[in-house]
Amino acid sequence: MARLKGKALFFTTSPRTPAKMIPEIRLLYEQFGGQKWNKQTQREFAVCLENSDFFEGSISKTESDFSARERITRAPKALGFVDLKPNIALTDAGQALIFGNRTQEIFLRQILKFQLPSPYHIENENIAGTFYIRPYLEIMRLVRELEYITFDEFKIFVLQLTDYRRFDNIKTEILLFRNEKESHKGEYKKFVMERWIQAVLNIHKDRIEVGKIKTRESTDETLKSFIKKQRGNLRDYADACFRYLRYTGLFVFSGHSIRIAQDKISELDYILSTVERKPIFVDFLQIKDKKERKKQFDIDTATYKKYLFSATDPVLYVDIKENIVDTLMRIGGFTRCELTGQTIDDLKDLRDRIIQQHKDAVIRTEVEKIKSYALYSEIIDTYHEIISDEYYDAPLMFEYNTWRAMTMLDGGNIKGNFNVDDVGKPLSTAQGNKPDIECDYGDFVLSVEVTLQSGQRQYESEGEPVARHYGQMKQRNGKEAFCLFIAPTVNPAALTHFYMLNQINNRYYGGKTKIVPLDLDQFMQLVENSYNSANRPTPADVHKFLNFVIEQVTIVADENEWSERIQDGISNWLAT
Questions:
Q1: Which of 67, 265, 517, 525 would disulfide-bridge 490, Cβ 3.0–4.6 Å?
Q2: What is the pLDDT of residues 78-91, one digit of tens each?
Q3: Can you tell me the distance from the alpha carbon of 131 to that of 83, in angstroms, rounded to the nearest whole number?
């Protein structure tokens, strides 16, 4: 049972992307199913997680049990995918998520059931009465009624919607904000910052008044530091919620706002008209007598868990066979007679195949535009926007935009391992056991890894996975292999690490690695050279550049000189 302490909505940020939750739940079930969820199993799970080939987060060296609880109780347990009492077990919803088809549907059901308060989340006495909401449901309603919600609107206003009975108030505040910002176009960032700070002051008014502004992560007790920390929290919660909503398939991200996918309006309207708005199974909160309260709490917990663990509740629009038939007649050109006699699962499989075909066609059209260099300026501008922190999900956009840039260089089969939505837009980053991008040039292959991390953390988080992905790709393809590592600025420790790996025979990585680290400016210079060249680059041109860089490793005196030679190769690439 978790205690609600703040006066703003919160959303799980670890793991931030829903798809990355699935292998972690599977690992818990396969390695620890049937055991007690205690500090010992939590520490053991943390070790297994850290040693897995898919995990990309970090495990506390001193509080590994806390790291394990963070991964399991904040989302898998809260959303009803696992039951941790009396022993670790998969629920029916968890079984459907891990082993079933159409994970988006089961995930949607579970977030619709998430509520505050609940037997899993109880308010502290000092904030009693603050929460009375199903957060995802009401946010979906806001998007429907407002047509869209921007990232700024979300972090400033939506996170203050702790009670569904305040829905109209929050909606009105957002509309007023939209009107006000029209008169602040020249100073929009300043305008947003002022409203963002005011939101923090409103949410934490009681805490600030009594001087409780010290955070667990910091010893700095200044109000300025507190506000900065809380602004970051609001941003992280907004980011996490956007990802969860997009994962359902009902929403798309457009510009800096989230809106309903045009073909999913009927599905969302069905949800808004059928799913109960009030939190349920919280009768115990009204009881003052401790003994009676505990008795009712046990009853409410049992009924809540039965409801939460169900893989079929609530009923969705797509659970009604007639609705799937109508969809197939619309998107597939089928007649009702042709679809008669098929099960609903068969109909859903057919719908999924048609949607995948449409998605593939959209991506093919996009690739054709990219290869014609029609999107050159947009790709370069997007890189600048990413670095300026203008995207709510910059790591995902960094992967996606680099896939576009590599595709524009042409000459190979360029595959981005990020997930895309039904209209071909990026949905989530690549899984932890794959390179971000894989390029097959016929005689050789190239993995591309990107990161926005900087400083020592860049080396600690990326050094080993980049080399491991390279070795795995080399083994899978049986061809000469290279790797590009791209960051806004390559950290000196990472540069040294790759410089050394490129000189050492290592069986785990398939011999000496061939990893080329590039600052983003350097990579964009390669793209610019290809754009300005009279002849478009070929696989042979790409191979020549990569070979030149790797050959310098054996010639130069140290990694700094190697870095200079890399720049020489970039400057002269495709030069006439």
A1: 517
A2: 999 999 999 999 99
A3: 24
Among the listed residues 512, 506, 452, the one whose alpha carbon sits nearest the alpha carbon of residue 482 = 512
Rounded Cα distance between 541 and 225, Å, is 51
**How far is Cα 166 from Cα 180, in angstroms, rounded to an integer?**
21
* Cα(93)–Cα(74) distance, integer angstroms: 16
Q: How far apart are CA 269 and CA 141, in angstroms?
A: 9
Q: Please check whether residue 198 is in contact with residue 49, taking contact to mean a CB–CB distance below 8 angstroms.
A: no
Residue written as token pair 């907004």: 238
The CA–CA distances, whole Å, from 210 to 3, 207, 232 equal 20, 6, 22
Give the per-residue pLDDT at 96: 96
The DSSP code for 430 is P
Give strand ranges (E) for 185-316. 251-254, 257-260
Percent of the chain with pLDDT over 90: 57
Per-residue pLDDT, averaged over 37-51, amounts to: 93
The sheet carrying 480-487 orders its strands as 413-416, 437-440, 444-450, 480-487, 515-519
pTM of the model: 0.84
**25, 76 contact by CB (below 8 A):** yes
List Cα–Cα distances, 184 to 181, 189, 192, 253, 392, in angstroms: 5, 9, 9, 24, 21
CA distance 313 to 107: 11
**pLDDT (tens digit, 9 = 90+) per residue, 307-354?**
999 999 999 999 999 999 999 999 888 999 999 989 999 999 999 999
CB 435 within 8 A of CB 449: yes
Scanning the structure block, which residue is given the tokens 């720049």?
567
Give the model confidence (pLDDT) of 225-282 as tens digits.
889 889 989 988 998 899 899 999 999 887 688 999 988 999 999 999 999 999 999 9
- Indicate the angle between helix axes 135-146 and 223-247, nearest 10 degrees: 80
